[in-house]
Amino acid sequence: MAWRDSRKNRSRLLLFMSSIVLGIAALVAVYSFKANLQRDIDEQAKTLTGADLIVESRRPLSPAVKALLDTLGNERALERNFVSMVYFIKGEGSRLVQIRALQGNYPFYGTIETLPAAAGKSFKTGRKALVDQTLMLQYQAKPGDSIKIGSLSFAIEGSLESVPGQTGLASTVTPVVYIPLEYLQETGLTQLGSRIQSRYLYKYKTAAAVDSDLKRHRKFLDKEQLSTETVATKKESTGRAFKNLNQFLALSGFIALLLGCIGVGTSIQVYIKEKLSTIATLRCLGLNASEAFLIYLIQVGVIGLLGAFVGAFLGTALQFLLPVVLKDFIPLELSIGISWSAIGQGLATGLIISVLFALPSLISVRNISPLNAIRASFEAVKPKRDLLKWLVYLLIMGFIYGFTYLQMNDAIQAIAFVLGILLAFLLLLGQAQVLMFAVRKLIPERMAYVWRQGFANLYRPNNQTMVLSLAIGLSTMFIVTLYLVQGVLLNKVEVSGEGTKSNMVLFDIQPAQKEPLAKLLQANHLPVLGQVPIVTMRIIEINGKTAEQYGDTTSAKDAKKSIVNAFKGEVRATYQQKPRATEKITAGNWTGTTAEGGTVFISLENGYAERLNIRIGDSIVFDVQGMPVKTKVGSLRSVDWNTVQPNFRVVFPSGVLEEAPQFYVFMTHVAAAEKSAQLQADVLKQFPNVSIVNLDMIIKTIDNLLNKINFVIRFMAGFSMATGWIVLLSSVMSSKGQRLKESVLLRTMGASRKQILTITGLEYLILGFIATAAGIILAVLGSWALAVFALKGNYAPEILPLIVFLVLIPLLVMFTGLYSSRSVLNHPPLEILRKES
Question: How many whole angstroms separate alpha carbon 422 and alpha carbon 429?
Answer without folding.
Answer: 10
